[in-house]
Amino acid sequence: MSDSGDEMDVDVPIIMAAEGAKGKRSTANLPVEAEDSLPWIEKYRPATLADVSGHQDILSTLNKFVDTNRLPHLLLYGPPGTGKTSTILALARHIYGAENMRQMVLELNASDDRGIDVVREQIKTFASTKQIFSISGGGGGGGSGKGGAGYKLIILDEADAMTNAAQMALRRIMEKYTANTRFCIIANYAHKLSPALLSRCTRFRFSPLKEVDIRVLVDKVIEEEGVNILGEATDALVKLSKGDMRRALNVLQACHASSTPLRAKDAPKTPAADIVRETITTETIYTCIAAPPPDAIREIVDTLLNTTDVTSCLNTINTLKVAQGLALADIITALAEELGRLEVKPEVMIHWLSGLADIEHRVAGGGGEVVQTGALVGVVRNGVELWRK
Ligand SMILES: Nc1ncnc2c1ncn2[C@@H]1O[C@H](COP(=O)(O)OP(=O)(O)OP(=O)(O)O)[C@@H](O)[C@H]1O
Ligand SMILES: [Mg+2]
């Protein structure tokens, strides 16, 4: 499922129609002065297809579809924060121009009711009405100038949350109104959609973004917002966001906010340029993401590999857990990554990974931390014994 950041998508097409014409980047329904207080994920939401980072293949295919006026029904799926919603909104703006989006695009997402009634009534009504006047000139606000695309677009965001009955009802509607409507279905998991629906769409998988693609936007935001961050901290941020651009921007904004000094209640407002901010370090990033810091993980690995005494291994881990507030689940993830880098016999690696997977499963299922920490030490030490044999 998508995370909470998406709640901002609700009114996007309508607002763009109002603001896009003025060339504003803002997509939320706020006065322009409020742009400063917008979350960065909205402030820096790509306005055009060219602004979307990564996914070059998908973007060039989409562009070709539009240029030849042969847009099929689309299915965009992939993990959260990879730009699915942004891409389709930018595409819609490219096709119709910002001012025509309101008439030509119907966007429904998980926050709207999308039960069978809506599919039957709202979608059907929208799909079945033809556009009477061709849209002249079209592409204001960055559009392509081919406003006369003879079809409307229905965007069903977070479609994996739609009821089965609604998905079924959609099949026939999609076929019946293909002459004047295109559907774009967006989901995190394609397997939650009905196979019949999938077969009617051209599928595009949005894979987690590459580190270089995340870096492009992160660097831009750092520069535009004047974020005081060390180079190595940016590296850590990009790596830890694991392909999720939304996460990267949210963490960056949180760190930036915490590095800004508080203003006394009646003190006059300091001009933005004069505010002295603390430098954001790698530790700040790790704390904000709540990932175990690399030093702690390295210490745990060293202890586990080199200490034969199980009790003292357990003591070290427990002390670190308490001192740094680490959760066992996070330790397991980081440990699996570290152990995976070691060059050991295949059977040792298999023993470690399958053991860690079991422990992770038990922790997620409610297993107690104390006993499972013991199991963790056991699994790693057993592997070491196998290795040294
Ligand atoms: N490829 C990208 N290029 C530029 N910005 C991006 C990209 N992907 C995500 N973002 C940033 O992250 C925010 C969220 O992206 P978006 O809403 O498109 O994600 P999504 O794929 O629809 O995620 P979800 O599955 O959670 O709905 C955007 O506002 C934008 O700031
Ligand atoms: Mg989305």
From TrEMBL:
One of its GO terms (cellular component) is DNA replication factor C complex. GO terms for molecular function: ATP binding; ATP hydrolysis activity; DNA binding; DNA clamp loader activity. Signal peptide: none annotated. The keyword ATP-binding applies. InterPro entries: AAA+_ATPase, ATPase_AAA_core, DNA_pol3_clamp-load_cplx_C, DNA_Rep/Repair_Clamp_Loader, P-loop_NTPase, Rep_factorC_C, RFC_lid. Gene3D superfamilies: 1.10.8.60, 1.20.272.10, P-loop containing nucleotide triphosphate hydrolases (3.40.50.300). Transmembrane segments: none annotated. Keywords: ATP-binding, DNA replication, Nucleotide-binding, Nucleus. It is found in: Nucleus. It comes from the Eukaryota. Residues 70-212 form the AAA+ ATPase domain. One of its GO terms (biological process) is DNA strand elongation involved in DNA replication. Belongs to the activator 1 small subunits family. This is Replication factor C subunit 3. It comes from Cephalotrichum gorgonifer. The lineage of its organism: Eukaryota, Fungi, Dikarya, Ascomycota, Pezizomycotina.
